Amino acid sequence: QVQLVESGGGLVQAGESLRLSCAASGSIASSNIMGWYRQAPGKQRELVATITTGGTTSYADSVKGRFTISRGNTKNTVYLLMNSLKPEDTAVYYCSARAMWDLTNSWGKGTLVTVSS
Fold this sequence. Notes:
This protein is an all-beta fold. The protein contains no helices and eleven strands. Strands 2, 4, 5, 6, 9, 10 and 11 form a seven-stranded mixed sheet that branches. Strands 1-3-8-7 form a four-stranded antiparallel sheet, with no helix packed on it. It is globular. The protein starts with a strand and ends with a strand.
């Protein structure tokens, strides 16, 4: 069982920055993929960014060049630095984690990011 706890959400104005954090605990595989998804009101949950244990990253086209995903020194912490935020980035952001060989994610409870225009 993996537990994920997000923090760092809040209300910001368009153009500003925000950093989200996610701490993983429990039985997390040594080789894993952690990431961030988001879900806006009335929309499906979508992938934002992922990072492997080895540091390989992947981003949704809508956030490339603006968001940066990274891991902390303990490797069980993942961050999402969001720059140049837009109102369309408003959503609940969820942290995810899974073993490299697993297709099933564990999820955090989410943190709300609101970007005002």
